[in-house]
Amino acid sequence: MGIPIVDFSKVDGNERADTLALIDHYCQEWGFFQLINHGISEDLLDRVKKVATECYKLEREACFKNSKPVQLLNELLGKNSDEKIENVDWEDVFLLSDENNAEWPSKTPGFIETMKEYRTELKKLGHKVMEIMDENLGLPKGYIKNTFDGGVENTAFFGTKVSHYPPCPHPEKVNALRAHTDAGGVVLLFQDDEVKGLQMLKDGVWTDVQPMKNSIVINTGDQIEVLSNGRYNSILHRVVPQTDGQRRSIASFYNPSLKATIAPAPQLLGPKVENKVSEVAKYPKFVFGDYMSVYLEQKFQPKEPRFQAVKAVSES
To answer: Has residue 275 got a pLDDT over 60?
Structure first.
């Protein structure tokens, strides 16, 4: 059946309350949902698909054919081995951000202009999604964004990961992308609308994040889990390699500044009047840069020890 779908146009109409309640439910129970009617034009999304695909063909494909995962797979096949490649991903990936714009692919016509326009629109959508989370959690408007900015205007990190997952002749031997939760805040994914592969873990079962034309998939990262004191959880997800079809994935991450201090929102702590149960902080207070240092070492391991490790760092 795939993950839930939200008509985002309804947040501005008569069905606002019901739509916000749905989003709150999906944030609590799923950690993943798809937005349709999100306000980003189909023309822009079509151009993004076009330039991303052309960029891979023109500037990336030859390198992938000589990449480490391809070499390791060929070695296994040459040895007729039953082993599986565990520590690399069958993925071509590069990052776009305001900080590295001199490194953006430059040979593909229209790529830079289109992706800059797309990132601007997607960042606005990210702000709207975070404001809805503020409202659903009972936090002041702008609380999540301001926390991610670290008290300094517009210093949160907004990066866009452009990935391609080429067809894999032996998908049983590799991971396209190993299971992990996302380190940061809110992820806005424009995934392939034809080739499947992305899955999230729901109630112990791997569930497809179904391809849907021009939708934007939202998922919550580790820092939203901390800020919400566990009301919203980051969710394990992975990409499964496919034997045919090349999957395109453009994931944008709205993350805290490395200097931002992250902790459960104080508005969510303290005595609960209705059932008289005190709500205590379930997560430590830490600097996001310290968390990222831990995450880079432990990305593909369970997330709970990461919180303990960054707690130790913050207390030392």
So the answer is: no
